[in-house]
Design a protein that fits this description.
The protein is mainly α and 185 residues long. The chain is built from eight helices and no strands. The chain has one domain: Butyryl-CoA Dehydrogenase, subunit A, domain 3 (Up-down Bundle), CATH 1.20.140. 69% of the residues lie in helices and 0% in strands. The N and C termini lie far apart (42 Å).
């Protein structure tokens, strides 16, 4: 749920170090950031979200803008952290495909629900991997993270028109993958 008019007050409080403001920001944006990083193949999406919030905390004093600008900034930082993680993995010559560790399914989680969620994540990751890297970024930010065209453009450093075209082409590719039957009149 967007902050609306209360965003300015929450931002000011966060810039002054108010714990309640940071909690509010985390509750609002932590889930979408984790979802975005998960479907984009982050090994440890929760850790990356923590890294995003650390960077935001270090630089929030210089932030100016509205809620849409803030969202773009958060996802831009998340996008850069994901790129950093991939570079690190490439340097370490690790397999780039995230493998789920069955030992992580524990405690209060229902094993069946966890398995289904894992399959859904794997399926979504597989579909996104069929797209070009730019299409993947745009589709994930627009559809999964729920960013606007302008926010996605700011997060990726692209123009709004380019984001529109990447989204259109990416969704068309996904349609072809999901329904390979040609449509006949």
């Amino acid at each position: 749920m967007p902050f609306g008019e209360s965003f300015e007050g929450v931002l000011t409080a966060a810039q002054e170090g108010a714990e309640w403001a940071w909690s509010t920001i985390y509750v609002e944006f932590g889930g979408p950031l984790t979802g975005y990083l998960t479907v984009r193949g982050a090994r440890e999406p929760e850790d990356l979200v923590g890294d995003v919030f650390l960077q935001i905390a270090r630089n929030i004093g210089s932030f100016t803008g509205n809620e849409a600008n803030f969202r773009s900034w958060l996802f831009m930082v998340a996008h850069h952290r994901l790129i950093d993680e991939r570079r690190k993995r490439a340097r370490q010559k690790e397999d780039l495909v995230a493998q789920d560790d069955l030992s992580s399914i524990a405690g209060d989680h229902d094993a069946e629900q966890a398995a289904l969620a894992s399959l859904a994540d794997d399926s979504l990751r597989y579909l996104l991997e069929q797209l070009t890297p730019d299409q993947r970024d745009v589709v994930a930010l627009r559809i999964i993270a729920g960013l606007s065209l302008e926010e996605t453009a700011a997060a990726t450093g692209k123009k709004v028109g380019a984001v529109t075209q990447l989204q259109r082409r990416g969704l068309a590719s996904l349609r072809r993958i999901l329904d390979p039957q040609p449509i006949t009149p």
